[in-house]
Specification:
The protein is an all-alpha fold. 78% of the residues lie in helices and 0% in strands. The protein is built from 18 helices and no strands.
Length: 464
């Protein structure tokens, strides 16, 4: 059974489905978590931000580890960490402990996600690879589409702890399939880029810390100012470290390709709009509009349902329209949807929200899977996991910073209560900003992918 494509697909898709469910489930459960654990807004925000921050921070390192140590080995380790941390989160009785295990779950999710993409790319080729990545995109879409509604039902029926237990149990099923998966790695040896890993991780965590704690401490507080300054300094260190290494974690040579850079920019922009809405709309719908957790989750299907259907159609669409054009259109559609979503208000029902939420979902759905296939196809085969790690890092770093920024805005406008007065105005300001940024990004992506070429980017001399 080892190397059987069907087994590979099942294991990869089940793990891929669990990761977005863990994020969206946590967002729906935030109000209940805060009440039961008697936690303030900053502490509750770390349930989401801690997971996303470590997910983003360790994506590059896990991609390099997968290339060097073996994709199956790193995949299994990541799934085990993710599942174990999920079970610990389900029994946590303190907000600090919950935040800590959620951060640990992000580490496991990073290893699982990067290795899964590389395993898929190594197992399928040609048209089969395109079909596999279309289904891969559908799995991500299913996690996003049904995550909020499933989480809402779980919270109503079993309490907030179940939203962490369910993905963990799915992870245990994936672990049972690991012995049947193929192993692959780079033919050459190499070393792990620990200086790059540490500097990037510390920079991102300090940046998120500044945004999350800023409204509570004050933006001019010496601790917050120092956090932002240190984050900037560490990012400079990270770039200098990567430029000087023969085996870098973040291969800056890949960013010399306009095509690859444009793909990463598109991926980062799309999730920077989608994911903060998935995190904060449930709180708005429950605290301001007055819906139940299940009702809020059902409403969010308007935002996420297109991500379930359209990844399968985007593969067929690229036979008629160049794939880069589809990506540019996706970013532009997301911008339109964000601007339209400013109709949101205390009396907003599904009819009012259907148009803008579906529009954003269409933009996201057309790009899911297609972006991954284009990114991996733009790098040399022996750097597949590293390339996947780079685009996923672009996604996760962008969405993590976006979540933190949106949280800082609404915390400031609501005085830390996530309620009106202030919640509606804060979200309107955020949505207009998202629309403007996405529109500019669409123009830049159009220029970059037009300048790029389809051939894979070679590994520079001294990097092989």
């Amino acid at each position: 059974m080892r190397n059987h494509p069907a087994v590979v697909l099942v294991a990869v898709l089940l793990s891929t489905l669990s990761l977005p469910v863990s994020l969206t489930g946590a967002s729906v459960a935030l109000p209940d978590i805060g009440r039961e654990l008697d936690a303030g807004l900053a502490g509750v925000q770390w349930v989401v931000n801690g997971y996303n921050a470590t997910f983003a921070s360790f994506m590059l390192a896990s991609g390099a580890l997968a290339d060097l140590l073996g994709r199956r080995r790193v995949f299994a380790t990541g799934v085990a960490i993710f599942a174990g941390a999920g079970l610990l989160a389900a029994v946590a009785d303190d907000i600090v402990l919950l935040d800590a295990v959620r951060a640990l779950a992000g580490v496991g999710a990073a290893a699982a996600a990067t290795s899964a993409s590389a395993i898929l790319a190594g197992t399928f080729h040609g048209r089969a690879r395109a079909r596999a990545f279309s289904v891969f995109g559908t799995a991500i879409g299913a996690g996003l589409a049904f995550g909020p509604s499933i989480a809402g039902l779980l919270v109503d029926a079993f309490g907030w702890r179940s939203v962490f237990a369910a993905p963990a149990l799915a992870g245990l099923v994936v672990l049972a399939l690991v012995p049947l998966l193929p192993e692959s790695r780079r033919p050459e040896g190499g070393r792990i880029d620990w200086p790059g890993t540490v500097s990037f991780t510390a920079a991102l965590l300090l940046l998120i810390f500044g945004f999350v704690q800023g409204p509570e401490h004050g933006w001019d507080d010496p601790v917050i100012v120092a956090a932002f300054a240190a984050a900037l300094a560490l990012l400079v260190v990270f770039v200098r470290v990567e430029r000087g290494r023969t085996e870098p974690m973040f291969d800056l040579a890949l960013l010399a390709s306009p095509r690859f850079l444009g793909i990463c920019l598109a991926a980062a922009t799309i999730v920077a709009v989608l994911v903060p809405l998935l995190v904060y709309l449930p709180s708005y719908l429950t605290t301001v509009v007055g819906l139940s957790p299940a009702g809020a989750g059902a409403t969010l299907i308007l935002l996420t349902a297109p991500t379930l259907v359209l990844p399968l159609l985007s593969g067929a669409l690229t036979r008629l329209v160049p794939a880069p054009a589809v990506i540019v259109a996706s970013v532009a559609v997301v911008a339109v949807g964000a601007a339209w979503a400013t109709v949101l208000g205390p009396d907003s029902g599904p009819r009012v929200l259907a148009g803008p939420l579906l529009t954003i979902g269409v933009g996201v759905g057309l790009s899911i899977g297609l972006l991954d296939a284009l990114a991996i196809g733009s790098v040399a085969a022996d750097r597949a996991a590293t390339g996947a790690g780079m685009i996923n890092t672009a996604r996760l770093a962008s969405e993590t910073v976006a979540i933190a920024v949106v949280g800082a805005v609404v915390a400031s406008t609501t005085a830390g209560r996530l309620a009106d007065p202030g919640f509606t105005g804060g979200l309107h300001a955020v949505l207009w900003s998202m629309a403007g940024v996405a529109l500019v990004a669409a123009a830049l992506v159009a220029v970059l992918v037009r300048r790029g070429v389809a051939a894979p980017v070679p590994v520079t001399a001294g990097r092989r």
